[in-house]
Amino acid sequence: MDLKRDDAGTIIPPYFQVSAVPPDRDGRSRVAVAGELDEGSAEPLIRAVTSLLGGAAPAVVEIEASRLNFLDSSGIRALLICRGLVGNAGGRLVLTNPRPAVTEVLEITRLCELFGLPAPAGAPRPPKNPVVSESTADLFIRSAAVRRASREIRDQARALRLTGDLRRQPQTPVRESPAPRSDG
User: Fold this and answer.
1) What are the tens digits of pLDDT across the range 2-16?
2) In this protein, which residues make up the domain named STAS (predicted)?
3) Which of 40, 91, 133, 143 is the Cys-Cys partner for 86 at CB 3.0 to 4.6 Å?
4) Domains of the chain, with CATH numbers?
């Protein structure tokens, strides 16, 4: 199976696509996402947004979500981290054209306005600017890598057990040292 990887070598799940376009003359960057934004696809999104902030930071980073069909709590966390990174660079992150299922998740969590979407009628207003530092994003990326590595090791061990290649080795008995003699 040929796995798709981003520039940092991170595997991009087959059910997720992300592409970033550098800022235009108006200072707007666009990140197009498609598929499912969850724990497995959060890191590639954060890396794509981070890559846009390397040079002259865009005034607005627009996440084009018309092809995003699933969003869970890990995806929300990734969006909040991206929003914090863009905000720390002096820009603003907005979500455009989300599908109804994605909008519903953002309405339930009361996050619509944070991403430039209209809040549902009668909804309380969220905090103005939750701050996520770059170090938080780095920790998130590292923890995702550790979880992925742990999963891979667990899957390899499971495969070895299933194929019978992982056999219990007979344990060598522990030799007890003789009791000290008392010459007295």
Assistant:
1) 556 666 666 556 778
2) 31-139
3) 91
4) 4-163 (3.30.750.24)
